Structures are given as structure tokens and as C-alpha cells.
Amino acid sequence: MLRHIILLRWSPDTTPDQKKAAEAGFHALPAAITEIRALTCGADLGLGGTYDYAAALDFDDVAGWRAYQAHPAHRAFVDGVLKPVLAERAAVQIDV
User: Fold this and answer.
1) Residue 30: its pLDDT value, please?
2) What is the DSSP letter of 84?
């Protein structure tokens, strides 16, 4: 199984409503993209983290992750919701 971990830092002018839209967008992805096996996401708890938000998505394999990357629902979410409010993004994929 492949886990895709995303770390996000909001731009300083990101509003609470934009943050809520990002969270709702993450939660909507599994219904739209069948390759997603599990999704966990949430705001940093403020215990010393360097990013504001994280998401972890599980896929059966690399092919599933690639399908997710190219999926129109994912592209629309990234381009329409995330990119306008992001200061920084980091991602890693690991075998679990």
C-alpha cells in the first residue's frame, strides 16, 4: 500500500472559510476518486509543527496514486481551492 502525505502552509491572508473549504474538499475526494482507500486530514495541533495542515491518503499502489493525481476532481480541488491559499506545500509517498 502507498501512503501520500501532504503538508500545507496557508498564506497569511487565508480566511477561516477558505480553511474550511480546503478541509471539506479533502473529505470529498474519496467519494469522487475510487482509488483512494483511506484519507485522514486535519489542522496542526500547535505542538511545535511547522505546517498548518496535513493530509494522508492511502492507495493500493502507484497506479492508484497516479490516477488520483490526474483525476479531474483532484485537479479542480488543487487548482480552485488549495493553490489560491497556499504559501507552501510538501509531499512524500511511502510504502506502508
Assistant:
1) 98
2) G
Between CA 52 and CA 92 the distance in angstroms is 16
Overall pTM > 0.90: yes
> Whole-angstrom Cα distance, residue 95 to residue 73?
24
Q: Range of 85's domain?
A: 2-91
Provide the pLDDT for residue 56: 98
Which residues lie below 8 Å from residue 48, measured CB to CB, with a gap of 6+?
none
Residues lower than pLDDT 50 in the chain:
none
Residues in the chain: 96
The CATH number assigned to the domain holding 31 equals: 3.30.70.100
Contact 6, 93 (CB under 8 A): no
CA–CA gap between residue 52 and residue 9 (Å, rounded):
5
